[in-house]
Amino acid sequence: MKRAFYIIGGLTLAISIPSALQAQTTQPKDTTMNRTVVVEQEYNPDIMDASKVNVLPRVEPPTVSKKAVEYDATLMPATHIPAGIMQAYTGKETQAKALPGYVRLGYGNYGNLDVRANYLFSLSPKDRLNLTFTMDGMDGKLDLPDNGGKWNSFYYRTHAAMDYVHAFQKMDLNVAGNFGLSNFNFMPGSTNNKQKFLSGDVHFGIKSTSEELPLQFHAETNLMFYERQHDIQYQDAQEVMVRTKAGAMGTISEEQFVGVDLSMDNTFYKNNLFEDYTSVELNPYYLYQSEDWKIRLGAHVDFAFGFGKKFRVAPDVTAQYIFSDSYILYAQATGGRQANDFRRLEMVSPYGQSSTQLDATYEQLNAALGFKTSPVTGLWFNIYGGYQDLKNNLASAAIANYSGSYLQLLQGNMHNIYAGAEASYSYKDIISFTASGIYRDWKTAKTENNSGDQLLYYMPSFEANFKVDIRPVSSVLINLGYQHITREKIGNERVDPVGNLYLGGSYEVFEGISIYVRANNLLNKDYQYYPGYPTEGINFMGGVSFRF
Asked: Of 175, 178, 312, 430, whose CB has the highest number of CB atoms within 10 Å?
């Protein structure tokens, strides 16, 4: 009965807000849906790093005009597992005349696999249906650290999704469904030499689209399922979550707004000893926007019932000042709760195990100050620095006391001082590049039995990324990039850095038909994203894509 109550309550909340508002509006309006969903893409060699902790300031710079988006999705090689798991589908801008169908097929050494298919159905001027299928992975022999021999490793991920949008006069209705499957094995010596994660979710959402409404609103309910089939202590452990979000914003004047957002998770467990819990977050805020200023004053008020019963408050304050057209000063003091549900555990470390239930990570404070400028057309610089305080932060997996090669997820209080810079430049459609670097000085709270420093072994102390795209002719695209991550030094020890130099490109042979290729780890470096788990040496992948 308790579970049914939470589910019914979430659905009621998602429906009730727009129903009352929609009843007040009778003025006819153009119902043509004015958004486009991405259905076209080419090979894009962005590097995924699942183990890094993002501490960049979460301040949004002013909107600037950009060139048309050419690509929708990024190729995510299994060498950088896992990529984002079961993320909600969102529409993005794309070329005005993009073809509705897209298929991509690729294969490489180490059994690297890349499959993607996408089709957008324009059912009517007000109805859109988008279907997506992706599969990527690898199956090959990797060199174990310290001359430990070969490991017959495999990791496959499959994702299927549907997304339907109907445009009413003053709001959009969104219905979506996702299915995900991760199938992989552990290193030799494990008690169970395989693991399988099964996930799925159903999404119902509405969002106002008319400025004539007295309030701008959004509401959604998500029923989410996740199963870990072969954990060492719990077999077929299941997590069911009802995630409800809603928000409304009203206008005080042309420059002033006030609003509140609500997020609630009702989480239930089966086939393990974890406790059910409910967490609620309220985010009231005041917003001021003018030609020069954008100020947000708010707070994150979080409380939980059941496991992790706590009441916490974090700031939600951002400010930015624009002067001389292209010079921006910005500051922030933000925070909030991050649930450590099964989905996030897979993203942090798919090889990780936890004998106890993990509490949510709470960002008590992320304070930053930055400066951004565009001295000439196409060129942007961003310089920033700040301080971050994290409670119960998830560390990269550490070696566990289990048999074999299982890893254990650990938590601890930690903070860091960070400073970084980034630059980007683009010239027409011929060349574009981005370069960024960030330094972090991590500290962890002392514990009774140890210093807690072991939590920092895989934390990034310095990270640098460089990427350049060159299009000498319209049919050819060349990609070159380098990713570097230096780990935190503990005593006199430091984990080997990540150093990935990659090169790729695509060529449109005929209209709608392209071939692509990419090579990773061209320096053949030995590095690890997870303790003890090797990555691929020099590896490559090639394939063909079709637009129709």
From this structure: 178
DSSP label at residue 490:
B
The residue with tokens 């008020």 is 301
376: CATH? 2.40.170.20
pLDDT-derived band at 46, boundaries 50, 70, 90: very low
Distance from the first to the final alpha carbon of the chain: 49
Least reliable range by pLDDT among 83-92, 276-285, 416-425: 83-92
The pairing of strands 533-534 and 352-353 is: unpaired
Classify residue 493 by its DSSP letter: B
| Residue 126 DSSP code | T
The per-type count for the chain, helices as H runs and strands as E runs, is 2, 27
Q: How far apart are CA 164 and CA 175, in angstroms?
A: 5
Average pLDDT score over residue span 160-183: 96
Please work out, in degrees rounded to the nearest 5, the angle formed at the alpha carbon of residue 389 by the alpha carbons of 386 and 390: 135
- Tens of pLDDT, residue by residue over 123-158, are 999 999 999 999 999 999 998 887 878 999 999 999
Each residue's pLDDT tens digit, 460-493: 999 999 999 999 999 999 999 999 999 998 888 8
> Which of 241-245, 306-310, 421-425 is predicted least confidently?
306-310
For 223, residues 6+ apart whose C-beta sits below 8 A from its C-beta are 7, 201, 202, 240, 241, 242
Task: Residue 204: name the closest of 186, 224, 228 by CA.
Answer: 224
C-alpha Rg value of the chain to the nearest Å: 24
Written as one letter, the residue type at 465 is N
Alpha-carbon span 182 to 263, nearest angstrom: 28
Q: Name the token pair of 503.
A: 């090169």
Nearest to 265 by CA among 314, 224, 316, 310: 224
Provide the number of structural domains found in the chain.
1
Amino acid type, 73: A
Return d(Cα 76, Cα 73) in angstroms, integer. 9
- Which residues, 6 or more positions from 137, have their beta carbon under 8 angstroms from its beta carbon? 78, 111, 112, 113, 154, 155, 156, 157
> 182 exposed, middle or buried (CB, 10 Å; 0-12, 13-18, 19+)?
buried
What range defines the domain where residue 145 resides? 2-547
Please give the pLDDT value at position 386. Answer: 97
Mean pLDDT of the 299-324 span:
93
| 469 SS3 class | strand
The mean per-residue pLDDT over the stretch 92-101 comes to 59
316 has a pLDDT exceeding 70: yes
